[in-house]
Amino acid sequence: MVRRVPDRYYAIGITLLFGLAAAIGIVHHEMWRDEIQAWLLARDSVSLIDLARHLKYEGHPILWYVFLMALTRVTKSPAVMQAFHLLCAMATVYVFARYSPFNRLQKLLFAFGYFPLYEYGIISRNYGIGVFLLFVFAALFKKRSARFLWIAVVLSFAAHTNVIVLLIVLAVGFALLAEYLAGRRTKSSEQRTANWLFWGGFVLIALAVVASILQMIPPVDSGYVPEWTLALSVGRLTRVIDLVSRAFFPIPQVRFDFWIHVPLLETLASFRKVELPLSVAIVAWIALALLRKPIALIMYLLGTIGLLSFFYVKNLGAIRHHGFLFILFIVAVWVAHDCREVNWLKPLGRLSGLAEKSLGPILTILLLIHVIGGVIAVGLDYRYVFSNGEAAARFIGDAQMQDLPMVAYNDYATSTIVGYLGKDRAYYPQGQRWGSFVIWDTAREAPVTDEEIISSAIRLQTELRQDVLLVLDHPLNLDRPTQGPLTEVARFTGATISDEDFYLYRLSR
Question: Full-prediction pTM beyond 0.85?
Answer without folding.
Answer: yes
